[in-house]
Write a sequence for this structure.
């Protein structure tokens, strides 16, 4: 009798165990496949070759088992729920990444989550990134719900040794995935700045795990940094050709500086026509009457506009993840406003958005801005707003009286906003018809660019009327791309050629216009980027302070080496364009052997690394005098 009971018990135990493993296996397969299909088809990751396909397929397996293992351990008696929870959370994480990807063509990183203050203004953009078929991201969850619902609950306690064996298998799977990725792409995880490449090789879930590890490491860097770290960064900076003086050194000494950040303005619209009409008639005319750099690239990362501000003011690179404006507000920097203070300049930023957006209120203090004219200084109504807020024409108009209160000379930055994704406009502001590709973002982009152009024209007239023109110089630059990689099809139609990675890199050009009243216009085709703005501007003003901490060069200097580094480690130099792990001949866009780009890859990586080290370690605190002078310690 007793023997029978025991054998029955054993049988039922083994049944239970089997059921448990069956549930685990079932959930693993459903979540794994769901993750695979979503990451393969919802992101545009340009997967090429069998190896990449295989990695895509295999890489969600380890992370799925890991999450299920942990969840089963926590919910020992509710394993249905554990499976459903993991499935739901996995899909939710994928969905959030997909929406972020549609907007930024990038994956979420932990520091992006610090950007809670950036919530206003996103409203209209969010609606345009949701698609009805996003519901299918949750297919796995619904399948599990269907399969598990109404079934007899499986009450199983997993015997401990089994559990350890299970985890050992999972750990091996994870390690194999990561090791395969590292073998195929050496230094992928230790030195790569290209998140798409990382996700392609280890998958979305593993990527988030990696991101977690990397960011926890980053947090400790400041604590462990010491002055010797800065010494090596300084000797790197000193090795670079420092003695580059342009013939224009001091040409604008003592002048007011207008710095105009042109929202989402890409270079390809310049001198281009749509339906027989110029898209940027005023900018074209201004460019002809100015120094116009047509091979100038934005270098921003996840911090978008704020990254461009950081780069332009500090001549340092933005961070590989997150926005410096959010993650390193407490650091010491030597920014243009701080340098100019010594020369009697007053600095101000004009931007009709909330002061907290991109953490500007805090970061502007750190960078030494004397004034920040945020939204609260403007009269913003339903009537004068569109898209993200106050229309550019009203913004510039209302900025004039504020500007006129400033003592001269001033360093005044104006950040435009209307030409922001999703490119909304009022019918009366449409001075040009939209394009007709059927892709609303691309089509409307031209209309809002044209609107900005007109607003700028009015502003320049007002500056002249106020008598400020002659004593000023004007620096205008596009802050970052407006049309992301997700619109290749429509862009191909506009440009009349396929958007290869080479073309995509070329699309990162933004206009840089330096207008000095009295100087004749000239188009300069030297390759440069936003880090070059600061040294160029300061040299025009006859100032060399800050040269020793600049990662960029004066664009007018004749012995400067033309070079533009992208935040993901891609670069453009005189002869090559390196992007998406392909080396291109810059002249004709043909693919050439990778070896030709190796020196450039090395150079770009080294520069980015030193800049990152300075920010992560807050290294400038070791060499700058105490605030507010920010002088260099003697
Ligand atoms: C918001 C404006 C736009 O204040 O700078 O931000 P973006 O999304 O372009 O970074
Ligand atoms: Mn912007």
């Amino acid at each position: 009798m007793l023997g029978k009971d025991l054998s029955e018990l054993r049988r039922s135990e083994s049944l239970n165990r089997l059921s448990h493993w069956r549930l685990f296996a079932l959930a693993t397969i459903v979540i794994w496949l769901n993750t695979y299909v979503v990451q393969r088809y919802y992101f545009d990751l340009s997967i090429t070759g069998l190896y990449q396909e295989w990695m895509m397929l295999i890489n969600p397996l380890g992370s799925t088992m890991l999450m299920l293992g942990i969840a089963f351990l926590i919910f020992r008696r509710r394993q249905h729920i554990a499976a459903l929870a993991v499935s739901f959370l996995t899909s939710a994480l994928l969905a959030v990444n997909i929406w972020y990807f549609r907007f930024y063509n990038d994956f979420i990183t932990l520091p992006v989550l610090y950007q809670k203050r950036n919530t206003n203004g996103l409203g209209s953009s969010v609606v345009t990134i949701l698609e009805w078929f996003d519901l299918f991201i949750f297919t796995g969850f619904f399948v599990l719900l269907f399969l598990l619902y109404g079934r007899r609950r499986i009450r199983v306690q997993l015997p401990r040794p089994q559990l350890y064996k299970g985890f050992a298998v999972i750990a091996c799977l994870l390690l194999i995935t990561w090791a395969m990725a590292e073998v195929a792409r050496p230094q992928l995880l230790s030195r790569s700045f290209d998140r798409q490449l990382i996700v392609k090789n280890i998958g979305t879930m593993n990527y988030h795990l990696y991101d977690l590890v990397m960011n926890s490491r980053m947090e400790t860097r400041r604590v462990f940094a010491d002055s010797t770290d800065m010494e090596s960064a300084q000797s790197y900076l000193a090795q670079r050709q420092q003695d580059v003086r342009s013939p224009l050194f001091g040409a604008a000494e003592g002048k007011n500086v207008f710095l105009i950040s042109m929202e989402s303005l890409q270079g390809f619209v310049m001198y281009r026509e749509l339906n027989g009409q110029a898209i940027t008639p005023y900018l074209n005319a201004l460019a002809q009457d100015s120094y116009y750099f047509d091979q100038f690239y934005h270098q921003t990362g996840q911090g978008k506009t704020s990254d461009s501000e950081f780069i332009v003011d500090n001549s340092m690179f933005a961070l590989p993840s997150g926005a410096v404006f959010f993650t390193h507000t407490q650091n010491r920097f030597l920014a243009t406003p701080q340098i100019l203070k010594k020369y009697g300049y007053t600095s101000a930023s004009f931007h009709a958005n909330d002061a907290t957006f991109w953490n500007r209120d805090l970061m502007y203090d750190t960078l030494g801005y004397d004034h920040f004219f945020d939204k609260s200084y403007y009269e913003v109504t339903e009537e004068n707003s569109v898209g993200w807020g106050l229309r550019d024409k009203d913004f510039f108009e209302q900025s004039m009286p504020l500007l006129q209160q400033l003592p001269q000379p001033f360093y005044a930055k104006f950040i435009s906003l209307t030409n922001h994704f999703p490119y909304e406009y009022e019918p009366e502001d449409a001075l040009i018809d939209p394009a007709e590709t059927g892709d609303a973002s691309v089509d409307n982009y031209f209309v809002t660019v044209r609107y900005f152009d007109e607003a700028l024209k009015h502003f320049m007239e007002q500056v002249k009327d106020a008598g400020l023109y002659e004593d000023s110089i004007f620096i205008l630059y596009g802050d970052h791309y407006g049309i992301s990689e997700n619109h290749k099809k429509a862009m191909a139609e506009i440009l009349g050629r396929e958007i290869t990675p080479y073309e995509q890199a070329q699309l990162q050009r933004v206009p840089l216009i330096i207008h000095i009243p009295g100087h004749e216009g000239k188009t300069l085709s030297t390759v440069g980027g936003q880090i070059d703005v600061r040294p160029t501007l300061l040299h025009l003003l006859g100032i060399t302070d800050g040269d020793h901490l600049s990662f960029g060069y004066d664009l007018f200097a004749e012995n400067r080496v033309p070079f533009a580094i992208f935040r993901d480690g891609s670069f453009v130099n005189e002869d090559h364009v390196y992007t998406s792990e392909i080396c291109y001949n810059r002249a004709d866009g043909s693919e050439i052997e990778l070896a030709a780009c190796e020196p450039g890859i090395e150079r770009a990586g080294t520069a980015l690394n030193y800049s990152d080290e300075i920010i992560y370690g807050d290294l400038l605190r070791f060499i700058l005098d105490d605030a507010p002078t920010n002088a260099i310690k003697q």
Residues 266 and 325 are 23 Å apart (CA to CA). Confidence is low (pLDDT under 50) at residues 628-634. The chain has two domains: 13-221, 245-560. The pocket of manganese (II) ion (ligand 2) is lined by residues 263-264, 304-305, 479-480 (CB under 6 Å).
